Fold these 2 entries.
Entry 1:
Amino acid sequence: MKKIGFVGIGVMGESMASHLLKAGYEVFVYTRTKSKAEALLANGAHWEEEPSQLAAKVDVLISMVGYPKDVEELYLGDNGFLNHLKAGSIAIDMTTSSPSLAREIAEKGKENGIGVLDAPVSGGDIGAKNGTLAIMVGGEETIFQEVKPIFDILGSSIILQGAAGSGQHTKMVNQIAIASNMIGVTEAIIYAETVGLDPARVLTSISGGAAGSWSLTNLIPRVLVEDFSPGFFIKHFIKDMGIAISEAKQMGLELPGLILAEKMYQTLADRGLSEEGTQALIKFYR
């Protein structure tokens, strides 16, 4: 079986790497804060002190970090992955990042004989824990098929969307849909509370109808018990919306709903709530 490297052990990365270990893969891990990887190391993962050392030892490298600048540094920096991965290996960036950066990494990888896929995900901490992530992939078909068994361990909806960068564009579509939906489901609960209804009963009634959505089913129940822990950080959602807004501007496309959502979440970040989950949008109203 292929040796897999996993860089970025965060809210989702720990569960994803754990699934690969349970499936029998030899997994090498690196994250900036080693303590985040302790559970994985206890279950047989190998720790590497530097990302470059990890890259030299694996057949498939998976990265899931915070921001496009982190991706650029890891792949294209002087000590980047593309200078250390073996020819014939495959790099999969599952960070939500810039489509143009994904294309640049793929092009440079091809020059070095390294296959590259951009494969951002949706489903948050719940999808990562359950192995039911939606994985949106950009890259070449032959590379995709080679690592499809790995994707199958991590997700339940795995679709090759097109050439390099297509996975990132698809994730932008996903985030645009979520942004306005989060406003809608949050305002719905605020209305229910204000009029004196029992929000939990209301949620039961509307979740199975036309108003139903993933956010309504999975995030609003957290709101009702004042659980604002991050399945997905506000700071990362703001980053994603910023990428989508930038891409839309380049296309001459106006997305007023997305711009409104970004402003609302930025207000929460300015209040010191950037480390909370996206369901904390209700605090904008309260």
Entry 2:
Amino acid sequence: MVARPDDRESDTEWRTAGDRIQTLLDSCAAGGTAAYDRAQQLVREVVGLYGAGLQRILAHADPQLAERLATDDLVASLLLVHGLHPHDVRRRVGDALDRVRPYLGSHGGDVELLEIADDTVRLAFQGSCKSCPSSAVTLEFAVEDAIRAAAPEISEIEVVAARHTDVIPAESLLAPMRSNGIAAWHPAPELADLVPGEVAGFLIAGTPVLACRVGDRSLAYRDHCPVCVDTLAGAQLHGGLLRCPRCATEFDVIQAGAGPGSHLEPLPLLTRDGVLSLALPREMLGASA
């Protein structure tokens, strides 16, 4: 099913609909337990009504139409909520990987589905993303995001990545991102305006972020020097090395911010729904450097 321009424009809005609904429910709690319970019941009734309608639509749909509905992101998400999606978990995970493969290929990488067992997906990355931690962080996160959207019943995603003694294992860098569940994505189109060699600070969803551009690649990090435990405001880029203006420690931004005995905290930066977006761990939202 090919998305129309207006469909693409609404994608970002419906992706965050669940969060907005939960925010409204939480606000109802201010009216007391009874008001909160009524609001929850109202949501359940509406969800049940739409679920019953979707079930009847699928009952009358021919296989071709059902397939088209299942491949539309918005409709597929609703089918999953109601347990009506026609594809099993392996098919959905495989389709999700196929959708992100062009993006992986643009970074010289690929991914292989090794196994799905006990609600756990095991993957192996291939290509240049194995040896470039900065790419691996973003690429692995893109794959995780696609899988969890297509198969929310998956409880764990294990990545088997090649280890190189001269770089930081991407798995260890992703650990902070995974420590509190799926991170939240935030539009950050202003980061796309950076020119090669430029370093700038941004405030994304209340979180200080340092972004830089090396060649045609935009990279983002938490605005925090792990050596002097201070902001990186005023940092300069020398080739691929970012120098802290306070302690003069240099970090290799291509190698995921590797420095002497420490590393910066890289943040996934992807184009989602046509907008450059940044993923922030939930525990980092609103945090200061």
